[in-house]
C-alpha cells in the first residue's frame, strides 16, 4: 500500500510541476477554438444576406395567400400566374359550361390543383382538369389573398366610380325607357350574358 501511495504522490507532483505545460496546451486549444468560431462567424455573416436574398426570391413557396406585392417581388411580375392560367383555361374550355363559378368541384381535386400551383408545377393544358375544378381553385385563390385585388386603400374610390357609372346608366336608361332599374347593366354586358344564356342556363334576371 505504501508503494502505491508513493507512486500516486510522485505522479501528482509531476503533474503539478508540469501545470504550466498542460495549461499552455489548454490555452492553445481554446485559441484554436476561438479562431475556428471567429472564422465561421465571419463566413456566416457574409453568407446570411445572400441566403436571405435567395429565400426572398425563390419561386418555391406557396402562392396561395401570397400578397400581390410579394408576388411581384418573387416572380418579377404583378400578374398572378394563378389568375392568368385559370382565366385562360376557363375562357378556352368553359364559356359554354353550365354554372361556371356556381357549381362545386371535388375538394380533393381542388386541393391537389392548389398544391400544384404552390409548388409551381401546375400544367392545366397537360392534365386537363374540369372547368369546375379550375374555377373553384381560382375562387379559393382570390379568397386567400391577404388583400382584395381592388385593395382596401382604393375601395372607396371604386365605390364612388361605380356610383357615378350607375347614375350615368340610369340616366341613359331613363332616356330610352323612362325607367331606371335597380341593377342596370350596360348593353355590352347584357349582350355578353345573353349570348351564353341558353348554353349556361342563365336565368332571365341575369341578362337584365
UniProtKB/TrEMBL annotation:
Q: Domain Rho-GAP: where?
A: 66-208
> Which Pfam families does the protein's record reference?
RhoGAP (PF00620)
Alphabetically ordered keywords of this record = GTPase activation
Task: Read off the SUPFAM superfamilies from this record.
Answer: BAR/IMD domain-like (SSF103657), GTPase activation domain, GAP (SSF48350)
Note the superkingdom of the native organism.
Answer: Eukaryota
Recorded GO molecular functions are: GTPase activator activity
Q: Name one GO biological process term.
A: signal transduction
What is the protein's name according to its record? Rho GTPase-activating protein 17 (Trinotate prediction)
Per the UniProt record, the source organism is Myxobolus squamalis (Myxosporean)
Q: What is the lineage of its organism?
A: Eukaryota, Metazoa, Cnidaria, Myxozoa, Myxosporea
Amino acid at each position: 500500500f505504501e508503494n502505491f501511495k508513493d507512486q500516486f504522490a510522485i505522479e501528482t507532483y509531476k503533474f503539478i510541476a508540469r501545470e504550466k505545460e498542460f495549461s499552455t496546451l489548454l490555452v492553445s486549444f481554446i485559441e484554436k477554438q476561438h479562431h475556428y468560431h471567429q472564422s465561421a462567424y465571419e463566413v456566416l455573416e457574409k453568407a446570411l444576406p445572400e441566403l436571405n436574398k435567395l429565400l426572398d426570391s425563390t419561386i418555391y413557396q406557396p402562392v396561395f395567400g401570397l400578397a400581390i406585392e410579394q408576388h411581384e417581388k418573387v416572380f418579377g411580375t404583378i400578374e398572378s400566374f394563378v389568375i392568368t392560367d385559370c382565366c385562360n383555361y376557363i375562357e378556352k374550355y368553359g364559356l359554354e359550361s353550365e354554372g361556371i363559378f356556381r357549381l362545386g368541384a371535388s375538394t380533393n381535386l381542388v386541393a391537389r390543383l392548389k398544391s400544384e400551383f404552390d409548388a409551381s408545377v401546375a400544367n392545366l393544358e397537360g392534365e386537363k382538369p374540369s372547368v369546375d375544378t379550375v374555377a373553384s381553385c381560382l375562387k379559393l385563390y382570390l379568397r386567400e389573398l391577404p388583400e382584395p385585388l381592388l385593395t382596401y386603400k382604393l375601395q372607396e374610390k371604386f365605390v364612388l366610380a361605380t356610383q357615378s357609372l350607375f347614375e350615368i346608366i340610369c340616366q341613359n336608361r331613363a332616356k330610352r325607357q323612362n325607367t331606371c332599374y335597380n341593377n342596370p347593366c350596360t348593353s355590352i354586358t347584357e349582350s355578353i350574358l345573353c349570348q351564353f344564356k341558353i348554353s349556361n342556363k342563365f336565368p332571365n334576371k341575369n341578362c337584365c
